[in-house]
Amino acid sequence: MRDERGKNDPNDPERRTLMKTKCPHCGEEYEVEADALGQTAECATCGGEFQVRDAEAKPAGSPRKPSAKIVRAPAKKKRTPVATRCPFCQTQLPPGAVKCASCGEWLPGSKPKDPIPYIILLLLFGQFGLHNFYAKQPVQGIAKITISLIALLSLAMGKEGVVVAIVFIFVIAIWCIIDLCRYKEILSAAGKS
């Protein structure tokens, strides 16, 4: 039987206030003591660190869920990606994966861009680099526009200008052929960013 002093003891397990919090990385819910609010916790499921936020406070005596491990000294460190599961087939994926090796599905946010618009833009407006803007390559697109403008301006210089324009147009044509041969690689990189 407890004595009267134990009723006001803040360390008494029956008097502690619990609160719910949720790991933002994997969604696992935890109940932690209210004094952990604002501290950094480590998820027991995925190992990710997160700041404890009050989702819903509730008195002690309620059924307890597992408690997240509270990390007292939050350290600023570079996080390595946590291995995840494929949302389609639930296969364990290595960190940084963009496509599931088991079912062949692209992971959300990593699907490459559609090749049809890229190829049409390349064939019709390759000289001006519009396909590069579609593939999130603005530097290459601006370079092609600049070279095209130089080629057009050099036509005003007479016979020598025509030769310069032909050379610049030839350079852009070779560059566009290379872009056409590498379209899968280029669009795959565009889908990741």
- Principal-axis shape equals elongated
Share of helix, binned:
25-40%
Give the radius of gyration.
30 Å
First-last Cα distance: 64 Å
Give the assembly state of these chains: single chain
What is the number of helical segments per DSSP (H or I, 4+ residues)?
A: 5
Largest beta-sheet characterization: 3 strands, antiparallel
Helix/strand structural class: alpha+beta
Topology (SSEs and partners):
Blueprint: E1 17-22, E2 29-33, E3 40-42, E4 49-51, E5 56-59, E6 69-71, E7 84-85, E8 92-93, H1 115-125, H2 130-134, H3 138-154, H4 159-181, H5 183-192
Antiparallel strand pairs: 1-2, 1-5, 3-4, 3-6, 7-8
Structure commentary:
It is a single chain. With 193 residues, the chain is α+β, with helices and mostly antiparallel strands. It has three domains: 55 residues; 28 residues; 78 residues, no CATH class. The chain has five helices and eight strands; from the N terminus they run ββββββββααααα. A hairpin with a 6-residue loop joins strand 1 and strand 2. The radius of gyration is 30 Å and the shape is elongated. About 7% of the residues have low confidence.
